[in-house]
Amino acid sequence: MQTRLADWIQDTPQGREADAILRKCVHCGFCLATCPTYVLLGDELDSPRGRIYLMKQMLEGAPVTVRTQLHLDRCLTCRACETTCPSGVEYGRLVDIGRDLIEQKVERSAVDRAQRWMLRKVLPSRALFAALLGLGRLFKPLLPSSLARKIPARGDVGAWPEARHARRMLVLTGCVQPSLAPSINAATARVLDRLGISLIEAPRAGCCGAVTFHLNAQDEALGYMKANIDAWWPHVEAGAEAIVITASGCGTMVAEYGHLLRDDPEYAHKAERVSRLAKDVSEVIAAERASLAKLLSPASRGVPRKVAFHAPCSLQHGLKIEGVVEPILRDLGFDLTMVPDAHLCCGSAGTYSILQSELSGRLLENKVNALESGAPDLIATANIGCLAHIGAAASRPIRHWIELVDEATTAARRG
Ligand code: SF4
Ligand code: SF4
Questions:
Q1: In this structure, which ligand is nearest to the CA of 24?
Q2: Which of 45, 89, 343 is the pocket-test mutation for ligand 2 (most atoms within 8 Å of CB)?
Q3: pLDDT digits (tens, 9 = 90+) for 269-303
Q4: Distance (Å, rounded) from C-alpha 341 to C-alpha 363?
């Protein structure tokens, strides 16, 4: 695609990066069929190619309106288009740049601004979110069923083993996950402990910054990233092998720390190292699969159960991790059911389910039907956002897959 960027942007880092991405697009349209919003709405402007045109026009100096902003807002940032694109167009980076620029050019309504501000303040704050979730649980019987379904019951967390091994890995604590499903990181700690690895938390680390970043407060998000780097750095220098991330949505954000902080003289080097150390828990377990097999016993497998695996967009399109979790689930004795249209987003997508609730609801309905079409006993996934979103609508229980590994290895130890 030929471009002629406007004077105000062409010699900036954002302009140069956007220009290089735009020039890769050859208008072929292969990406349309795998874009969830195009599949639902059938409008070219709600497709990757249409949005690329809109961003090109803005970068070339054409006036932008709320209409352009709406089409970018409707994008889930699922990055299915990147997986499909034969030309390697980094759509996710482009839309981040496009949204940042449009936020400065088009003023949102007061209601929209207030809603986004609230989300930016509540979700990344562990204490605030925990307090609100506690209130939600207290008053759950009085809430409308549509809201009550989204509030999970308090589950059993189990013990977090003492750090006793020479091999150590950090874990991202996150923001909403410790309140919604603290069992996920605790299960990860137990599984890794059995594999001879101690999992440790850095107390001052918190939200990865994704919520804030994707609400177009990108400078604010860099603050969360730097705080995490500061909290992790002493452990990195002490030899932590990896930074384990159990929510693939957070994993895609941490993987980008190095890129986003590349021009920061104080943090560039550390951010690049942190991004290299960041590993989705599936990558860590896959590397230890032979040792994991020794922890399993035929008795631990029990009667094979049918599981539908929901691969989050952040796992398959963001981190490009495909076909890694499924063999681990088979090792545990599960039968995996077929899931049609597994590349399509469930509609969770960070705050999308709140800000674009109608589209999100349609995607959720399609996803639950697809997941349940093989009559599974349970659904497994790899991201807290998808887990909470799908869990509110599915008729089957939904778990993080690492919890299933924890249960199987616990059962094997008991004989
Ligand atoms: S990121 Fe997802 S929703 Fe956005 S344009 Fe690409 S495929 Fe469509
Ligand atoms: S598939 Fe890639 S090259 Fe083709 S239109 Fe989509 S983004 Fe452009």
A1: 2
A2: 89
A3: 999 999 999 999 999 999 999 999 999 876 666 56
A4: 11
